[in-house]
Amino acid sequence: MSHVLDDLVDLLSLESIEENLFRGRSQDLGFRQLYGGQVLGQSLSAASQTVEDARHVHSLHGYFLRPGDASLPVVYSVDRVRDGGSFSTRRVTAIQKGKTIFTCSASFQYDEEGFEHQAQMPDVVGPENLPTEVELARAMADNLPERIRDKVLCAKPIEIRPVTERDPFNPKPNDPVKYAWFRADGNLPDVPALHKYLLAYASDFGLLTTSLLPHGKSVWQRDMQIASLDHSLWFHGNLRADDWLLYATDSPWAGNARGFCRGSIYNRAGQLVASSTQEGLIRHRKDWA
């Protein structure tokens, strides 16, 4: 693994400080607040460590309640709500400075035979010859705010290659649909739960901004206030986070200063391995311009 991926795996591993109580350090990605994907991945890690290995997470539903502080660790309290014959349910509370910043419920299930069908994978170009997000950002480095330039341009543990490429500093109205390939930048051990933590971490990248596309707005514009409000994730089976995954996102609705987005995640074989939804704040702050 690269050192940045090794650091991310360590970030998601958590420290057990008491039964059902865990602590995770934080990373500063240059945003105004703690990156939501970190809290998603660490919450799933905390919940998974209280469930037997034979039960695999199949869904997570969470709410972002307060902005997190990237300079402080996060404490995760896990409530073992139920262990039934087939399913286990966990409730996780993420805490900083004595206050809840995020809460979620996660459900786990034994593998079981059943009916199967899935939506077809979109027909898009493969990742091999596409530039990475970091390469695209370096070509526009002069437009990046100086305070976060180094964080945007540094090596990343998750390699993202946009299929749908647009200029975030001069956005034009477009259909609310995006495609991007992503993978962990290095080989990971064969631990299925770890690959799901990493998917949860990566699932927050670029999802909410899909709702800005019809309006010709970008997260990089100073007059936009953007924050995740809730996030749901369904795992349809095991996956490899260190092999290419296609994130197909769309936004069917926006209104009342909120945007609603959906995501479908496919592996290279065309299997739908996960689905996501998110609603977030997309407030146009003319007083910030």
UniProtKB/TrEMBL annotation:
Superkingdom classification of source: Bacteria
Hydrolase keyword on record: yes
Family membership noted in the UniProt record: Belongs to the C/M/P thioester hydrolase family.
The enzyme's E.C. designation: 3.1.2.20
PANTHER family: ACYL-COA THIOESTERASE, ACYL-COENZYME A THIOESTERASE 8
MF GO annotations: fatty acyl-CoA hydrolase activity
Acyl-CoA thioesterase 2 C-terminal domain mapped to chain residues: 153-281
GO-annotated biological processes: acyl-CoA metabolic process; fatty acid catabolic process
Catalytic activity: a fatty acyl-CoA + H2O = a fatty acid + CoA + H(+)
Uppermost EC category: hydrolase
Name listed for the protein in its UniProt record: Acyl-CoA thioesterase 2
Keywords: Hydrolase, Lipid metabolism
Statement: the UniProt record of this protein carries the keyword Lipid metabolism: yes
Lineage: Bacteria, Pseudomonadati, Pseudomonadota, Gammaproteobacteria, Pseudomonadales
Subunit organization: Homotetramer.
GO annotations of cellular component type: cytosol
